[in-house]
Specification:
The structure is a single chain. The chain folds into three domains: about 80 residues, Immunoglobulins (Immunoglobulin-like, Sandwich); about 120 residues, Cyclophilin (Beta Barrel), CATH 2.40.100.20; about 260 residues, TIM Barrel (Alpha-Beta Barrel), CATH 3.20.20.100. The protein has 17 helices and 25 strands. Helices cover about 35% and strands about 25% of the residues. Helix 7 packs parallel to helix 9. The longest helix is centred in the N-terminal third of the chain and has 17 residues. With about 500 residues, it is α+β, with helices and mostly antiparallel strands. The strands form four sheets. Strands 6-7-13-11-12-9-8-14 form an eight-stranded antiparallel barrel. The protein has an eight-stranded parallel beta sheet with strand order 18-19-20-21-22-23-24-25. It has a five-stranded antiparallel beta sheet with strand order 1-4-3-2-5. Helix 6 links the parallel strand 18 and strand 19. The structure holds NADP nicotinamide-adenine-dinucleotide phosphate. The site of NADP nicotinamide-adenine-dinucleotide phosphate has 30 residues, from helix 13 and helix 16.
Length: about 500
């Protein structure tokens, strides 16, 4: 892996320096599956290498002034050197490009494991199509027609707004009121425009659609968000907490990461797009987490407000002397404010400790506060005693211990749920990751078992913080937004519950 990365880096560097750099220059280069390499090229330009999984498409582009730019680059090209390389997954890149755009008139297309977005046209046909998708996703079997389109029956009639037009690759067209077509080539006819697929070239689209028949699922992005029990925004990959602050919905857990391993893992996570880091006073690694965050901000140009750090104070002496314990966490992290602080477990002094955290919130030193290892009974007793509603409850959640009674209860209180041991926890991951049900679903989507489990959590509205010291696993665990588990697949995983707790609390 390292050798391949090095080879790619050298290749990219040599390609970069050989190029007369100008906007939108393109060339071919073969990359690894499902990876995007973003090189922080001289400022005001960006070298991006893309490889789309499962297709033969690959390219390297210099992009300038394009919305696919990930980093804020403003100075002239000559002024900076080409020193940094990051690995990004394709879905991260797509999400960043979409981030600033309104998703209001957008729909999603799921095709051959790819997620595409399309912008709807402004006419009554597109409005009716959107209304249909708001009732739920629509899956259409499409076939090739005349080497310029895929076409399939919608099963219902929509109003027509036909006009003479020459289609472009990516056009979504309503034909005869009840046929949906995706054009990948041009044709002149009287047709109704429903919209256009975003940010895809003709070659990319052809490769994604493939030869012959294809199944395409159209869905409404807004609706997917509303249906999501945790109100997650899968486009920004964030959730709005009841504290008014936004938190990323997937992150890195650091329970067993220490010393340089911790620093390197947190930096690897931040380099590949992870923006949520979970630590705790009890883990003994807050100083390393803080150091990694500071170094990543400096080296990768990430702003502090993009990163969300959670820490926790522990029962016993810390909760007995909460002000001191809270300040000690803030000092050890040394990253200015703390995004979220939790009480690690219930304790005789937990209300007192929580009230101390409330004071730190009022002083602006902590943005949000919450609880960890609190269940229904504990919450019922605790909530009436505090002024600031917890923004988060972090509990053990994985397919063998699902907390199906606790999660909806917490969510009904407008509190976000986060799962620890999402992969079962050390010592249990091998069994969970090789569960035949999960492996079979993973195979169907061309992803790993870990990705299926993490995605299952996200679709249940549970934030995930898998722990890992392996950069490949960290990248994989952040690549969760290019596939969607069906209701049937979700049910199959729900059926794996054994009420089997993997830790005592
Ligand atoms: P986990 O996330 O369930 O599992 C971590 C294990 O999975 C590691 O051995 C890791 O090995 C492996 N792994 C990670 N990604 C993988 C992948 N893509 N493929 C294969 N293996 C993979 O357990 P955890 O780290 O103990 O728990 C997650 C986080 O929850 C903790 O780090 C901590 O932040 C939090 N937590 C909170 C509490 C609480 O009381 N609030 C309790 C426990 C944990 P590699 O290093 O080789 O990737």
């Amino acid at each position: 892996m390292k050798t391949r990365c090095l080879f790619i880096l050298i290749l990219l560097l040599s390609v970069f320096f050989m190029l007369p750099v100008k906007a939108d220059t393109e060339m071919s280069l073969t990359m690894q599956d499902n990876q995007v390499i973003v090189m922080n090229a001289p400022e005001n330009s960006m070298l991006i290498a893309l490889f789309y999984k499962g297709s033969s498409l690959s390219d390297v582009r210099i992009v300038r002034g394009s919305k696919t730019i990930i980093m804020d680059i403003s100075k002239e090209m000559e002024n900076a050197d080409t020193t940094k390389m990051f690995l990004w997954d394709h879905s991260t890149l797509t999400a960043v490009s979409e981030k600033s755009e309104s998703m209001k008139n957008k729909i999603k297309l799921e095709v051959n494991g790819h997620i595409l977005t399309a912008t709807l046209s402004e006419n009554s046909s597109a409005e009716a199509f959107l209304a249909l998708l708001k009732e739920g996703p629509v899956t259409i079997q499409m076939r090739d027609y005349s080497n310029f389109e895929k076409v399939g029956s919608l099963g219902v009639d929509l109003p027509q707004n036909n006009m003479q037009m020459t289609t472009q690759p990516g056009d979504l067209i309503l034909y005869q009121g009840n046929q949906i077509t995706i054009y990948y080539d041009t044709n002149r006819w009287s047709l109704t425009s429903l919209g256009k697929i975003d940010d895809v070239t003709q070659d990319e689209l052809k490769a994604i659609l493939g030869d012959g028949n294809v199944t395409v699922t159209f869905s409404c992005t807004e609706d997917l968000q509303e249906q999501n029990p945790g109100k997650f925004n899968f486009n920004t990959r964030r959730v709005l907490l009841n504290s008014g602050h936004e938190m990323p919905i997937n992150g890195l857990g650091t329970y067993s990461l220490h010393g340089d391993t911790c620093i390197n893992s947190v930096k690897a996570a931040l380099a590949c797009g992870v923006r949520l880091i979970d630590t705790a006073s009890a883990y003994g690694n807050e100083a390393q987490v803080g150091q990694a965050v500071r170094e990543a901000m400096e080296e990768y140009g990430i702003k502090r407000e993009e990163i969300f750090v959670i820490t926790k104070i522990y029962p016993g002496s810390e909760m007995a002397n909460p002000e001191k314990a809270i300040q000690a966490c803030i000092d050890r992290l040394n990253i200015g404010y703390v995004d979220m602080m939790l009480l690690h477990h219930p304790d005789p002094n937990d209300v007192k400790a929580y009230k101390a955290m409330e004071k730190f919130v009022q002083e602006g030193k902590i943005h949000s506060i919450g609880l960890s290892n609190w269940y229904v009974e504990e919450l019922e007793a605790f909530l009436p005693q505090v002024d600031i509603k917890p923004a988060l409850v972090q509990n053990e959640i994985h397919p063998y211990y699902q907390e199906n009674d606790v999660i909806p209860y917490i969510q009904s209180k407008d509190i976000t749920v986060q799962g620890w041991y999402p992969l079962g926890g050390r010592g249990h991951t091998a069994e969970l990751l090789s569960d035949p049900v999960i492996m079979q679903i993973a195979q169907a989507h061309g992803v790993s078992s870990a990705q299926v489990i993490l995605r299952w959590n996200l679709q249940k509205g549970v934030v995930v913080i898998p722990g890992s010291s392996n950069p490949e696993h960290i990248l994989e665990n952040n690549t969760l937004y290019h596939f969607h588990l069906t209701d049937e697949e979700m049910e199959k995983i729900n059926a794996l519950d054994r009420n089997e707790k993997h830790d005592w609390y």
